[in-house]
Design brief:
The protein is mostly helical. It has three helices and no strands. The protein is elongated and about 75 Å long. The mean pLDDT is about 75.
């Protein structure tokens, strides 16, 4: 993509910081949606009695949550802002609550 010429014929310089930021935000949204779908799958597997599927889905949710946090932390290091944005806090809280729920459900089953 080439910069568009302005009125005087000069080209406007492109901001190099926008594309990495959009990419980081896209990965964060992907990680969050993967974690939420994995948690739904974990609960469905738990209700169906498929314990191995529950454990696998819970591990995927934890991995997606870790990806979300570490990608946010890397972006925060570059821009010197807090890694604990409201989205990250909510995602970590939801994932931790769901993992605790799965653990307590597995304890109750045995």
């Amino acid at each position: 993509m080439t910069p568009k010429p302005t009125e005087g014929g000069a080209t406007k310089p492109r901001d190099p910081g926008l594309q990495p930021e959009r990419t980081a935000l896209a990965w964060q949204r992907t990680a969050l949606s993967t974690a939420m779908i994995a948690l739904l799958l974990a609960f469905a597997c738990l209700r169906g009695g498929f314990l191995i599927g529950t454990a696998i889905a819970a591990l995927v949710a934890v991995g997606a949550g870790a990806t979300l946090f570490f990608s946010r932390r890397a972006a925060a290091r570059k821009s010197r802002v807090s890694a604990w944005t409201p989205l990250t806090r909510i995602a970590v809280l939801l994932i931790a609550t769901a993992v605790l729920g799965v653990v307590f459900a597995l304890i109750a089953l045995f």
